[in-house]
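seq:
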Amino acid sequence: MAKMDIETFKTQFDGGTRPNRFEVDIQLPPGVGSGSLNNILVKAASIPAETLGILQIPFRGRVTKLPGDRAYAEWTFTVIDDTTHILRHDLIDWHRAFNKHFDNVPVSDQTYGGGTANILGGGSQWYTSCTVKQLSMTGAPHTCVGMANCWPVEVGAIDLSYDTADTATEFACTIAYDYLTPCASGDDNSGDASSDGDVGTDDSDTYTNGIPDS
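struct:
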């Protein structure tokens, strides 16, 4: 019979993790801002879900369910807006680069000191990497997930109202990405399903910005 007393639970519980201890690294394209966001102002984020579709095969009145295709939903984080608006401006510059408001065309890499290649093409420097880490009570990362080929789908609205008081301004940004990756070599990925080498590499490989070097 299972024990029901609180002392048994306390001896088997290690204290748990805290959702308010995390760190986010958003890499910006070369030439936009400082190259990465000030992650201390990222107020909220999430560790991305891992999702497989369901392939349903009917057979004589019954249905068997098999693993289908892997899907990656967009990832959203929330930023505290400071008086410089630098983070928002950097994200908007990145977002607008894919389609100008008036001209209805993307910028060229030459605009930011690069070549003249179409930035929408594969391998473009405008698709970057993002990393989210959940931190232990000592501040060390214990869960770390990277996202590859990221780009901003939406830089969210800032709500304004005379009725709002005692509140810091904030906004959300939604990122699309292609797949999850192990974090950079040296991070502790214990407990992270993305660290099991399922991207075709093993844990001895080295990584750059969360993407396998080979």
